[in-house]
């Protein structure tokens, strides 16, 4: 690697881990705020590193979990119809593959959000428990009759669940395992809970897709880890667990679903070795791959700022679509503020009337966007691009254009 920005200890194996990319001073990604709170806004250094020993890509400075997940957490999974469909299929896959031969199965989901996945198990009459630390989100799930505890998962909570409900047939997670820096405590708790043939099935944004697509906006405070098959295998082996299957998923700009069991309890799918080979081709175990990634990120920033600046000079009206956590990385790293983007349209009520973290761009309801019809719209929610482009057909037919920056900066 040609440049080391900082050094920290690997969160998995404790080895010195150099940072290969720094986004600089960054606010809480999902910390949408009111104007009165600007002066109290929390910032940290967003650096990402690669462990030369266990090959885990990870943040080198962490934010206290209570600053990110709390009673005012501003993300509700069920707002996306696409994700509702995806999680129903996810739940059905687990039920069919791993619960069909289990009498009285018990399913636990970590980071269960508003119950978007567990509502399926509830409908099937399957015993379930959601573990959701953000109280306001957990309350939504509880209001649907989905059994949910508002807590952070660790070995202590695992012991309580085991005492109250017995062993777990399937322990699930979606876009949450990568959020947890204290992974050994989580894995210890999961191993304790899993029945002899029980499985851990989780999916998260996939490092290979992030590198290939230069989707650097997947890097923000909540994502402590950026998983690959190699790094997941190393992690779970430390707890006498074994990766038995992997399945690529199209959601969130490219995710991977990992299935893990007690060592030797279940056969290992050929898909695992196939993905290992793919990772060798991508160079995910080599430091120079991440040096090239940094160069691609810097190029993307240059191209996006140049396009937005050109549009401003031409007198074009530019807005943005999707007040996502990912958008915070882009606006802050690229120094994009209200001078280049007049507002961000979002359908989440808790974000409307507030301002984006760091950049302080106003967040407005979708109705404002529909009435205003800006000339160009920067699509922060690019991972839902097809769903949004279909929804906004009238806007596009009237001459509106969307700007995307993954895998490169382009206009559609």
Strands, helices and their partners?
Elements: E1 7-9, E2 16-27, E3 43-50, E4 57-59, H1 65-68, H2 81-99, E5 106-110, H3 118-123, E6 127-131, H4 135-143, E7 148-149, H5 155-165, E8 168-174, H6 183-193, E9 194-205, H7 207-213, E10 225-226, H8 229-237, E11 241-249, E12 255-262, H9 270-282, H10 287-313, E13 318-321, H11 325-333, E14 344-345, E15 363-364, H12 366-372, E16 376-379, H13 385-391, H14 393-397, E17 401-404, E18 410-411
Parallel strand pairs: 5-6, 5-8, 6-7, 8-9, 13-14, 13-16, 14-15, 16-17
Antiparallel strand pairs: 1-2, 2-3, 3-4, 4-10, 9-12, 11-12, 17-18
Helix pairs in contact: 5-6
Describe what this molecule looks like in 3D.
The mean pLDDT is 93. It contains 14 helices and 18 strands. β17 (401-404) and β18 form a beta hairpin. The strands form three sheets. The protein has a seven-stranded mixed sheet, with helices on both faces. The chain has helices spanning 65-68, 81-99, 118-123, 135-143, 155-165, 183-193, 207-213, 229-237, 270-282, 287-313, 325-333, 366-372, 385-391, 393-397, and strands at residues 7-9, 16-27, 43-50, 57-59, 106-110, 127-131, 148-149, 168-174, 194-205, 225-226, 241-249, 255-262, 318-321, 344-345, 363-364, 376-379, 401-404, 410-411. The longest helix has 27 residues, at 287-313. The chain is globular. α5 (155-165) runs parallel beside α6. The chain folds into two domains: 77-282, Vaccinia Virus protein VP39 (Rossmann fold), CATH 3.40.50; 289-411, Rossmann fold, CATH 3.40.50. By secondary structure, the protein is α/β, with parallel strands linked by helices.
